[in-house]
Each structure stands twice: as C-alpha cells, then as structure tokens.
C-alpha cells in the first residue's frame, strides 16, 4: 500500500545549498529570483505534491514533507525529533567539502540512515556543484556511500534534471517502503 505522504529529510554541512535545492524541487522559488543565502534556523518544512509519479506502472500523486535541516551543529539536540518517522534522507554537500565535511557526511549517514534502519535506496547524495568541471569523485567519501545514489546537481544549468532525479529518488523510496510492508 502506498503512503499518501512521505517525510524526507534534507541535511548536510552548513552552506551546502540545501535550502536552494529544497526551494527549487518544491517550486517555492525560481532560481533566478533567489536571494542571498541565509542559514536555516533548526528546520524548515516545505510541503508540496509530486504529481504523476510512475510507481509499479501506475501514475500516482504523492505529498512530500521535505524537512530542510540546518547544517549548524548547535541544532544537533533536535536530531532525535527530526529522525522520527523519516522515510528518506537527502544528503547535500558542495564543492568546498573538506575532509572534515566528508567525515560529517559519514556521521549524518550513520545517524539518519543506518541507525533508523533505512536502506541505501532511501538515501541519495546531492553534490551541489556550480561548475561543469566539478566531479563527485573529488569528494573522497568513505565506502559507506558506495551503495548510495550520488547525483551532481547544478541549479543554473540542470534544474530540470534535478527534478527528474528527485522523482526517481522518491520512486526508489516508495519501492523500499513497499518491500517492508
């Protein structure tokens, strides 16, 4: 049975572009109109419908509750509440990802994906790049991420591609949930 609403967390290091991606996916804002980045305070929940999703040969509409989570560790005490009922996790990192940020991605994966026993199919890594030359391979992520889909995101040139990749990810989450039930 299909759920009628999915709770998806979007989390990653501070200033990795989570809010811009969330706004674009949810069609909350046109990228050309985007303001200067402002740090998210705790969490911001964006609700929207993803129409005409092809799941098992059927076209369905699914409501998405996208939790755009701050990358600031001073909100870490909120993490247990954020994780309750989560059905999917989008990890976001950017080209300025350092070794420390790569370790942070591992910490986030362990806390939000492994501990609540989500499958690798319920997680995706969005590599928010601004330049065509930037490669996901440059991230030097641990082998933990070998089974996680990794998607290069460029909102300036590939926004439509992002929407397709997001829809594919949501389909993957729905398939994973259906296997469990």
TrEMBL record:
Q: Which SUPFAM superfamilies match?
A: P-loop containing nucleoside triphosphate hydrolases (SSF52540)
InterPro entries attached here? P-loop_NTPase
Domain of life the protein comes from = Eukaryota
- Protein name per UniProt: Intraflagellar transport protein 22 homolog
- Source species of the chain: Chrysodeixis includens (Soybean looper)
């Amino acid at each position: 049975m299909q759920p009628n609403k999915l709770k998806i967390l979007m989390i990653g290091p501070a200033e990795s572009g989570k809010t811009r991606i969330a706004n674009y996916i949810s069609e909350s804002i046109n990228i050309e109109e985007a303001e200067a980045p402002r740090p998210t305070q705790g969490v911001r929940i964006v609700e929207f419908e993803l129409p005409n999703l092809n799941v098992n040969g059927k076209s369905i509409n699914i409501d998405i509750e996208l939790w755009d989570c701050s990358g600031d560790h001073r909100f870490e005490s909120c993490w247990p509440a954020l994780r309750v009922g989560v059905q999917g996790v989008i990890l976001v990192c950017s080209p300025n990802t350092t070794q420390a940020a790569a370790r942070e991605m591992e910490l986030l994966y362990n806390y939000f994906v492994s501990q609540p026993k989500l499958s690798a199919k319920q997680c995706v890594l969005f590599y928010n790049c601004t330049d065509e030359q930037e490669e996901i391979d440059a991230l030097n992520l641990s082998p933990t991420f070998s089974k996680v889909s990794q998607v290069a995101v460029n909102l300036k040139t590939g926004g439509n591609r992002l929407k397709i990749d997001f829809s594919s990810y949501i389909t993957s989450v729905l398939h994973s949930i259906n296997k469990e039930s």
